Amino acid sequence: MEVQVETLDTHEAKLTIAFDDATIAKTRRDVAEKLSRSVRLPGFRPGKAPMSAVIAAVGGEDAFAGELADELARRHYAAALEQAKVNPYGPGHVEKVDVDPFRMIVRVPLEPLVDLKDYTAIRVTAPVVEVTDSEIEVELQAIREDNAIIEAVERPAELGDLIQAKITGETEGRTVISINNRKVVLNEERVNVPGLAAAVVGVAAGETKETVLVMPEDFEREDLRGKEVTVKIEMTSVSSRTLPELDDNLALAASKFATYAELRADVAARIRERKIADAARQYEDQILGTFADLSKVVFPPSYLEDRVAEAMEDFKAQVKQSGFNEFEDYLKLQGQTLEQLEEELRPGAERRSRRGLVMRELTKAENITVTRDEVEAAVTAEAEHQVEHHGADLREVTKILRRKENVDSIENQLLSRKVIDRMVNIARGL
Known about the structure:
Blueprint: E1 2-7, E2 12-18, H1 21-38, H2 51-57, H3 61-84, E3 93-98, E4 103-109, E5 113-115, H4 133-146, E6 149-152, E7 162-171, E8 174-185, H5 188-191, H6 196-200, E9 208-214, E10 228-242, H7 248-254, H8 260-294, E11 296-298, H9 301-321, H10 327-334, H11 338-365, H12 372-390, H13 394-401, H14 404-427
Antiparallel strand pairs: 1-2, 2-4, 3-4, 5-11, 6-10, 7-8, 7-10, 9-10
């Protein structure tokens, strides 16, 4: 067997594999014998037809060549890879078969490669977290909103009221707005459809109103931009909302604190804690992006296609959890094809691919590992968390967490955490 190797710009190898006459002759006989058992040939018992008759029955020499190539690949592909000294990412495929002389050309996707370059020189300035008075006021306003005094009124609805209504909107035979008789605060932020809150103003309990809204050209849903939507409003109830004052009484009603000053200080502390966590996540993402941008990462097309397929399956699961039994129904509602969605998911899949490969390479470069004791400690901690917060049985949840797939998942999470922590330390010059 002779193997010629050509490395392609797509990070694939093209193997041209030629076989000696004896190997081809034996494999031809074996393939013909195998086919003769499944091909019905008049005048011959199964497995007893001559090779020429079998070849003719399957469509001639060209068709038989495909069967022959498949069998040769099954028998000799591994040896061809070893001889070619290539490291495949996944299975190759026969791209072309030449009959005379017999040879086959196989395209093989190569294992992704990562060059981290001089990653130890990376520096990223850590963010500074500040809490502003306006941020505190927004949070306090939300507390006021949550503790509003609600009173049913007989008048038509006004902005700021708490309404209960069934609201539907249709365009081109599709239902695009659906508020199924639930309570909602009447403002543009809560209703979230341009012009809808204003259309509801003036409708009293027991009344019905129909109107037409024209969606703006920059509406977030592309399939509705510039479209006329026929809206039907069926009002069930209207209630006024009176917001409490920002004082000690609000603190007593809305928190464990006795004074407004304590409530405000707690709000500021919680905002700071949240912003620190958000800033840490953004900082880590920035660092990971910097590592990925510095590194040279190459992978074959099939690697990215696999990641896009995984992203699609994850997205389908999310759609199902949101209440869609059929994924096609979701696509119709969005006015989107499967191909369009795949292209939408592709950039994110490629970005995650690059970053994941960089993390994998850094794991090796920095000799980062996870010990059995660390995994066991994480299992114990998670089991105790499940018991404390969900009332789970300790023995049962521990048994579940120690299943191989869960242990592997925990180990991967711990490893990822260690790698990210190492990246952060490098970026800080530590």
